[in-house]
Specification:
The chain is an alpha/beta fold and 244 residues long. It has one domain: Glycerol-3-phosphate (1)-acyltransferase (3-Layer(aba) Sandwich). Strands 1-7-6-2-5-3-4 form a seven-stranded mixed beta sheet, with helices on both faces. Strand 3, helix 4 and strand 4 form a beta-alpha-beta unit. The protein is globular, with a radius of gyration of 18 Å.
Length: 244
């Protein structure tokens, strides 16, 4: 009887994804009692990401890190086509990352508490006023702690792997903090674990870090043009990666 390795990988990754996330959430909550600034969170997240990708048979390749200054804060804005994007970025970027996450995730027992304690930003997609308020409050926390944030520009995973319309949340966060925006282009993940498909294929996810885009001298009135610039940069780097 032939053993389906892809099925085994998928089951192992799913089981660890559920159980491991719960365990990591508990560990994070406990550690945050002693580490109020949450500096240990990046290490915990990167270990969780390593195991997820290892079990999935997925490797990452990242280029463009030389554009970034270690210890600086950035708002990373990326395309999003797969659940594997999150562990890939957590493992690939050596920064204290926090996420913009929909409010529903904060209601999950343990996981939601861990998100809140670690400083991730809760977003109510159905309430613009509340979302903007959360972004501004989150900006204060991130700036005080010297964190960076990862924002998936489309707000959700793409159904077909194509880059969709970008929302303005990440740009508003960067403008509120007065820090650079970095376009991230993730390629390969859509074919390995597309939205709506249980099976995970082994392979390589490539992450291209674009040149940081300054927000200096800009204000909220520049948000539309910045969103367009970021999206264009993400698509350009994706096209160049696919052409290699």
């Amino acid at each position: 009887m032939m053993v389906d390795k892809a099925l085994i990988r998928s089951v192992l990754a799913l089981v660890f994804g559920i159980l491991g996330t719960g365990i990591v959430s508990v560990i994070s909550i406990l550690i945050l009692f002693f580490d109020r600034r949450g500096k240990s969170v990046h290490f915990i997240m990167s270990r969780w990401a390593w195991y997820i990708l290892k079990l999935s048979g997925v490797k990452i390749e990242i280029k463009g890190l030389d554009y970034l200054t270690p210890g600086e804060s950035y708002i990373f804005i990326s395309n999003h086509a797969s659940l594997l994007d999150i562990p890939a970025v957590c493992l690939g970027l050596p920064f204290q990352l926090r996420f913009l996450a929909k409010k529903e995730l904060f209601k999950i027992p343990l996981f939601g508490q861990a998100l809140h304690s670690a400083g991730h930003i809760r977003i109510d997609r159905g309430n613009l006023e509340s979302a903007v308020r959360s972004l501004k409050e989150g900006a204060i926390t991130l700036k005080e702690r010297g964190y960076s944030a990862l924002v998936f520009g489309e707000g959700t995973r793409s159904l077909n792997g194509e880059v969709g319309k970008f929302k303005k949340g990440g740009v508003i966060l960067a403008l509120s903090m007065g820090i650079p925006i970095v376009p991230l282009s993730i390629s390969g993940s859509a074919s390995l674990a597309p939205k709506g498909d249980f099976m995970i294929k082994s392979g390589i996810i490539k992450i291209t870090v674009g040149e940081p885009i300054s927000t200096e001298g800009k204000d909220i009135s520049d948000r539309h043009s910045l969103v367009s610039i970021i999206r264009d940069a993400v698509i350009k780097n994706l096209a160049e990666e696919d052409a290699v």
